[in-house]
Amino acid sequence: MSEIDDTVSDNLASHTLAYLRRLDSRMDSIEKTMIQMVDLLSRHAMKAERGDRDNRESFVRIERDLGEIKSDAIISENNILDRFNESLALSRRIDKHEERLDNIEKPLSSPHS
After folding, report:
1. Which of 33, 42, 83, 108 makes the best surface tag, with the fewest CB within 10 Å?
2. Would you give the end-to-end CA distance of the chain in angstroms?
3. Separation of alpha carbons 82 and 75, rounded Å
4. Cα 78–96–107 angle (5° rounding)?
5. 112 in helix, strand or coil?
């Protein structure tokens, strides 16, 4: 009976060792997969952070450009208003000169008494 017990014990030890090796192999495989997943996630996180930073920089640039466009529009509006004012002033001066000419011409065109 002792031989049978020894054979059973050896078989049990052999099967247990094989089972533990299989578990160890699976754990190694899972560990490699986990490392790959963590690597992948960290790369995606870096890309997302880079994208966020680029977006923030783009928004800052857009806000700056909009500010410049607004100031250019205000400057253009002021230039247009200045030209309108100059035209209005010139028109008034011409009207005054025409009135003066009319006043000068009236006495000349009327018959002398």
Report:
1. 108
2. 168
3. 10
4. 170
5. coil
The answer on pLDDT for 70 being more than 90 is: yes
113 pLDDT above the threshold of 60: no
Q: Measured between alpha carbons, how far is 9 from 19 in angstroms, rounded to an integer?
A: 15
Q: How far apart are CA 48 and CA 46, in angstroms?
A: 5
Give residues with Cβ within 8 angstroms of 43, minimum separation 6: none
Percent of the chain with pLDDT over 90: 73
Q: What is the pLDDT of residues 7-23, one digit of tens each?
A: 777 788 888 899 999 99
**Alpha carbon distance 99, 78 (integer Å):** 31
Spatial distance between the Cα atoms of 34 and 97, rounded to a whole number of angstroms:
93
